[in-house]
């Protein structure tokens, strides 16, 4: 079987092709951009990271399909993370394409576009609340490159139906991975363009954004149940191979987080911080210790632990209190 990250153009369904595009310095290695033949010009679901090698491969893939970046009519983006959104800005500059993003992403995008390093300040504040000041001191600046981030043309309201002529995609809000994440459902063709909401082999991070909601794990679990309540469809993920069933993977993700909640609760000691718990539990499919993680994954680990602890408090299984701006659990 071909590695899903191998460059090329891969048919998924009639009129739909997958083009994996590279990611710089990222363990995910690639992001899937889906090209829908709309008759009047290609429509992209997600766009890739705005780096030269990604745009070059997108050009090559579209050329293989008999079209070009200049012909792209729409870019439908599942969420605001740079590997999904930023290349849409480049595509729009060349084609005039309409870029659409879920309206729930507006607060985070406004923070990204705000003058000054808002993202760094907010990350430092969150890490302080988690008892992770040492980690906060290692964070790099997150200044926005001019021209990389811009506002979309269309903010997708919940339940918006996107008319593509030959097909209709329903945009379904699925907050959790980000506050405004959406999936696109082609009910007639039984396709789920899932973005990072449902990934076939890894567990999506949650709440990694400038303006997360208060209970990101609750949001994510609720969103999984929303999609699980729909008819089962072919899963078209942003990272990983296309699979036949979204339901099977959703069941695995729900079970994973249920187990993770139990493991997190078991790691709590009286007066502990988020950082204390993150150091006790293991990480990734390889069951690595916290000490084995690099800076990026250490920050993710603290955020994930915080989300599980917050939900345990919300469920009444834990209590929390603030001491000198640091949250302590028991």
- Structural class, please? alpha/beta
CATH C-level class: Alpha Beta
The strand order across the widest sheet is: 1-2-3-4-5-6-7
Weakly predicted, low-confidence segments? none
The amount of beta strand, in percent, is: 15-25%
Q: Supply the CATH architecture.
A: 4-Layer Sandwich
| Mean pLDDT reading | 93
Reconstruct the topology from this structure.
Elements: E1 10-13, E2 16-22, E3 30-37, E4 42-45, H1 52-64, E5 74-77, H2 82-95, E6 98-102, H3 106-113, H4 118-129, H5 133-136, E7 154-156, E8 161-163, E9 168-173, E10 182-186, E11 191-195, H6 216-228, E12 234-237, H7 246-266, H8 274-280, H9 295-314, E13 320-323, E14 326-329
Parallel strand pairs: 4-5, 5-6, 6-7, 11-12
Antiparallel strand pairs: 1-2, 2-3, 3-4, 8-9, 9-10, 10-11, 13-14
Helix pairs in contact: 6-7, 7-9, 8-9
Quick structural summary:
Residues 30-239 form the Metallo-beta-lactamase domain. The chain is of the alpha/beta class and 330 residues long.
What does this protein structure show overall?
This is MBL fold metallo-hydrolase. Residues 30-239 form the Metallo-beta-lactamase domain. It comes from Rhodococcus antarcticus. By secondary structure, the protein is of the alpha/beta class. The chain has one domain: Metallo-beta-lactamase, Chain A (4-Layer Sandwich). Helix content is 34%, strand content 20%. It contains 9 helices and 14 strands. It has helices at 52-64, 82-95, 106-113, 118-129, 133-136, 216-228, 246-266, 274-280, 295-314; strands at 10-13, 16-22, 30-37, 42-45, 74-77, 98-102, 154-156, 161-163, 168-173, 182-186, 191-195, 234-237, 320-323, 326-329. The chain has a 7-stranded mixed β-sheet, covered by helices on one side. Strands 8-9-10-11-12 form a 5-stranded mixed β-sheet, with no helix packed on it. The longest helix is centred in the C-terminal third of the chain and has 21 residues, at 246-266. The N and C termini lie far apart (48 Å).
């Amino acid at each position: 079987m071909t590695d899903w990250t191998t460059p090329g153009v891969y048919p998924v369904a009639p009129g739909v092709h997958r083009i994996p595009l590279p990611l710089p310095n990222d363990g995910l290695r690639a992001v899937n951009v889906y090209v829908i033949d709309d008759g009047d010009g290609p429509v992209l679901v997600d766009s890739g990271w705005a780096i030269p090698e990604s745009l070059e491969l997108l050009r090559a893939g579209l050329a293989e399909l008999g079209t070009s970046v200049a012909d792209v009519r729409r870019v439908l983006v599942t969420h605001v993370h740079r590997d999904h959104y930023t290349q849409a800005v480049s595509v729009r500059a060349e084609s005039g394409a309409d870029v659409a993003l879920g309206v729930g992403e507006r607060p985070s995008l406004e923070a990204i576009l705000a003058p000054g390093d808002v993202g760094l300040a907010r990350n430092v504040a969150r890490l302080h609340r988690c008892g992770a000041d040492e980690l906060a001191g290692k964070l790099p600046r997150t200044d926005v490159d001019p021209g990389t981030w811009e506002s979309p043309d269309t903010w997708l309201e919940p339940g918006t139906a996107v008319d593509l002529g030959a097909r209709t995609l329903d945009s379904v809000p699925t907050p959790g991975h980000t506050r405004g994440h959406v999936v696109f459902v082609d009910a007639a063709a039984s396709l789920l363009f899932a973005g990072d909401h449902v990934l076939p082999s890894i567990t999506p991070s949650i709440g990694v954004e400038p303006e997360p909601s208060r209970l990101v794990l609750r949001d994510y679990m609720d969103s999984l149940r929303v999609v699980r309540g729909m008819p089962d469809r072919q899963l078209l993920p942003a990272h990983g191979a296309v699979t036949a069933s979204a339901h099977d993977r959703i069941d695995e993700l729900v079970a994973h987080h249920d187990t993770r909640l139990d493991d997190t609760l078991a790691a709590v000691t009286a007066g502990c911080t988020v950082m204390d718990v993150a150091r006790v539990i293991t990480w990734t499919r390889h069951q690595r210790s916290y000490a084995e993680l690099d800076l990026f994954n250490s920050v993710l680990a603290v955020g994930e632990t915080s989300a599980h602890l917050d939900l345990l408090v919300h469920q009444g299984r834990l209590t929390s209190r603030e001491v000198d701006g640091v949250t302590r659990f028991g």
